[in-house]
Design a protein that fits this description.
The complex is a heterodimer of chains A (98) and B (189). Chain A is α+β, with helices and mostly antiparallel strands and 98 residues long. Chain A is built from four helices and three strands; from the N terminus they run H-E-H-H-E-E-H. Chain A has a three-stranded antiparallel sheet with strand order 1-3-2. In chain A, helix 1 packs across helix 3 and helix 1 packs across helix 4. Chain B is mostly helical and 189 residues long. Chain B contains nine helices and two strands. The chains are: A alpha+beta (98), B mainly alpha (189).
């Protein structure tokens, strides 16, 4: 379940702006979503191969080029679906707790 | 004093001391083994991981000629963890670097051979200087039986060819780290 949520989080972050892996990590860490970074990379590659993300190389002022990930149209529609599913889940839990 | 290794990680060049290099190499292999993505996508994940490692090292050493040390690698390993979010398991110093004695096996040592590696192999097995064995062998040669003894050993004892056999010959555990120290022998070298 946590992995599914993590995939949702990645799409959320990238829907705001394109980012490279390290800045995605920073955001996830700030939100206490991941403990170790290693979990992120397989997910990024999987989502990329599902066509939800794409990437491009950008020259960096210091060191080798960086790989910037951005969300695709398919990714955006997936995100909309996930948003709906998330809202549904939250309201279900709220109902149960009452 | 420690030996160092130059390694290209994620497009940057780093100098690692041997402890750090071995540790990082073992970590990357563990990480790859634990990946659950299809085989043809593993390379891509590993590239991303290496870029990240490169960044983390760069933050530590920058453009300076400082050497990447074991504590730096340990820090990176604990930051990155395993693909499934767990801590790294199946790795410990005792299994990787110990020279725990396991039963030795008799092989012909082709790296230190004179004729067919029989004496060198016996020296490894009994852990004595190969010169002593050679002298004993020469003495027995002149008293008669030496030729046949040597010939029988030559025929009966296998060559230590694979890295695993090299480890068995030396009586050290055949771990990946140990095996890396003995590359497979090229014939006719």
């Amino acid at each position: 379940m946590r992995k599914g949520v993590l995939e949702y989080c990645i799409l959320c972050i990238l829907s705001k702006k394109e980012a490279y892996a390290s800045s995605i990590i920073e955001e996830l860490k700030a939100a206490n979503m991941i403990v170790v970074e290693g979990t992120l990379y397989p997910l990024l590659i999987r989502q990329k191969n599902q066509g939800l993300l794409s990437y491009r190389w950008e020259e960096s002022t210091q060191g080798p080029p960086r790989k910037y990930y951005e969300i695709t149209e398919k990714g955006r529609s997936q995100l909309t679906e996930m948003d709906a599913a998330w809202q549904e889940m939250v309201s279900s839990i709220e109902t149960l707790k009452r | 004093m420690k030996r160092v290794t130059n390694a290209c990680i994620g497009g940057r060049n780093f100098t690692l001391n041997d402890d750090a290099y071995n540790r990082l190499d073992a970590y990357l292999r563990h990480f790859r083994a634990r990946l659950t993505v299809p085989e043809n996508q593993k390379g891509e994940v590993m590239d991303d991981i290496e870029s990240r490692i490169s960044e983390l090292f760069y933050q530590e050493v920058g453009e300076s000629s400082r050497v990447v040390t074991l504590p730096m690698v340990e820090h990176v390993v604990s930051t990155l963890g395993m693909p499934d979010g767990s801590a790294e398991t199946g790795y410990s110093y005792s299994t990787a670097f110990s020279e725990d004695k396991v039963p030795k096996k008799l092989y012909r040592d082709m790296d230190n051979k004179g004729i067919a590696g029989v004496c060198a192999g016996l020296a490894q097995y009994f852990d004595i200087d190969v010169t002593i064995i050679r002298i004993i062998m020469l003495v027995t040669l002149f008293t008669g039986a030496g030729f046949w003894i040597y010939l029988i050993f030559w025929i009966a004892v296998p060559k230590a060819e694979t890295p695993a056999q090299q480890c068995e010959m030396r009586g050290i555990p055949a771990t990946a780290e140990n095996m890396a120290r003995f590359p497979r022998r090229e014939e006719n070298k």
